[in-house]
Each structure stands twice: as structure tokens, then as C-alpha cells.
Amino acid sequence: MGGSVLLVSIGMVLYIWLGKQIEQGVEPSAKGSADYMIILGAKVKAGGVPSLSLKSRLEVAVPYLTKYPHVKVIVSGGQGPDEDQTEASVMQEYLEQNGIKATRIIVEDKSTSTYENLVFSKELLPKDTKKITIVSNDFHLKRAKYLAETLDFEVDVVAAETPKSVEAKLRLRERAALLKTYIVGY
């Protein structure tokens, strides 16, 4: 009995602590100081329709890129087995349709995870690039920043809201992913 109470207590503390870690992900907020932005991919539905999570990322990226015309953007995301287009191609099309010039968009379309988004995007950046801006949903930014910092990046962020319809599920899943990242390193 005492062992199970201890395990439940540890689980609750861990759950709360991971939640606080996730909340810290939205800082520091980007203010145009990085020359490169990476928009992390998310699910694409049939016909190249961005999922709610991906759409919210794109919706915050467009005004930021409009405000800071010197920033180039990497759209990062491959094609999952249940996707009919790469996430990067859908993001590129959305950005272009919303006034972002194609000359500012760099396409990374091989990645299948957050870590790969960052590793493969790093290969497309000038070698001396240290500072980047990451765009993702608020729940995802702590882990994305942590992974980017392991790749020697200095990171600021543009936080997209998490769609309410999937928020509880994604925040729970992200706690597990963040814990795994802290333990395994990626």
C-alpha cells in the first residue's frame, strides 16, 4: 500500500512539474533579432489541408514574417504514411498564398520528428547561424527549444495557440515526450 501511494505521489509531482516546464516554452518571445525562422511541421489532412495545429502555426508566422521582412523561413516537415503531401509543401503554399515571397522560403521536406525538423533544417542554414526563431504550438515549444539548444542554437519563439479541441490530448502526450527527451536526449 505504501509503495503505491509513493508512486502516485511521484507521478503527480512529475505531471505538475512537466506542465510547468511546458508553460515556460513560450519565452523568450521573438522580436525579429534572428535572421532565420523554422516552422515545425504538423499533420496534413487529405488534399493538403493543414491540421488545426499546423494552421495555427502558419497563422502566427505570416504576420511575424510580414513585420520582419529580413527574416527567411524554413518550412520543415516530411510526408507521413497517412499524408498525401509533405507538410513543408503545404506550409510553403500557405505562406505564398498569404503574401510571403517564395525567395524567403526554404523547404525541408524529409523530417519525420521534431528532432529531425531541427537537424535537417540546420543543414540548410549558413554554417555560422546560431540564433533562430522557432514557430510551433505553445505546448510544443519547451521541447523544441531544448532540442534546438542541444544543436547549439540560441532560440526565441513565436507561440501559436493550441486548438482547444485537441489541447488536453496534446498536452498529456507532450508531457510524456518531454520526459523522454530529458531522459534520452532527443
From TrEMBL:
Domain DUF218: 35-169
Assigned GO CC terms: plasma membrane
GO biological process terms held by the UniProt record: Gram-negative-bacterium-type cell wall biogenesis; peptidoglycan metabolic process
Pfam families tied to this protein: DUF218
InterPro entries: Cell_Envelope_Assoc, DUF218, Rossmann-like_a/b/a_fold
Organism domain of life: Bacteria
Listed Gene3D superfamilies: HUPs
PANTHER family in alphabetical order: ENVELOPE BIOGENESIS FACTOR ELYC, INNER MEMBRANE PROTEIN, PROBABLE PERMEASE
Protein name: Vancomycin resistance protein
